[in-house]
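testing teh design pipeline on a random one, pls ignore if ur not involved
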């Protein structure tokens, strides 16, 4: 990579980091290109030279945020933990990111169509394959009912995922609802933590 390309990558990273901080503080919809430029110590024109629009910048921020989170999940998945330990780690992470003070929900606005497209890509290309592997592990370890098909478990996952896109699901007042649904997702109506 030549000097020009290195400077270009540094500038793009600096803009993304500034946008992430501003989105976390004020939310995507209440952030402006001029505010991001001030946060980054650059000009709005520089931002438009690197990202065609605020939405294009958001897409880059979302992809980077998801890539970072994916690396964390992948490391956990490949760590040698049991199926139950992985599920407990996922529950803890899910509840933490849905906490009312979580920056993640402000950084990744679920009501933006481009964000929904990116999330769907991640779900299809990364989440589903990882969950298929985890289902196989759970069956092998005897934690999951061996009679459950992968497709049945993934259908259940899809129902849960769709419930998260409902606006009321993310309302701060519904923290207990979210915790309950996460528990139901992993343990069922009669299941208990062991």
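output:
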């Amino acid at each position: 990579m030549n000097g020009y390309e290195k400077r270009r990558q540094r500038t793009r990273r600096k803009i993304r980091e500034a946008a992430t901080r501003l989105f976390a503080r004020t939310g995507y919809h209440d952030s402006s290109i001029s505010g991001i430029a001030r946060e980054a110590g650059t000009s709005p024109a520089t931002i438009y030279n690197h990202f065609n629009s605020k939405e294009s910048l958001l897409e880059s921020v979302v992809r980077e945020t998801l890539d970072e989170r994916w690396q964390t999940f992948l490391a956990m998945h490949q760590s040698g933990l049991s199926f139950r330990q992985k599920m407990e780690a996922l529950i803890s992470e899910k509840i933490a990111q849905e906490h009312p003070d979580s920056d993640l929900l402000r950084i990744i606005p679920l009501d933006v169509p481009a964000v929904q497209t990116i999330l769907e890509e991640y779900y299809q290309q990364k989440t589903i394959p990882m969950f298929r592997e985890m289902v196989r592990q759970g069956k092998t370890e005897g934690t999951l009912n061996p009679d459950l098909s992968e497709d049945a478990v993934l259908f259940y996952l899809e129902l849960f995922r769709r419930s998260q896109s409902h606006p009321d699901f993310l309302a701060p007042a519904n923290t207990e609802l979210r915790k309950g649904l996460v528990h139901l997702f992993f343990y069922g109506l009669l299941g208990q933590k062991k």
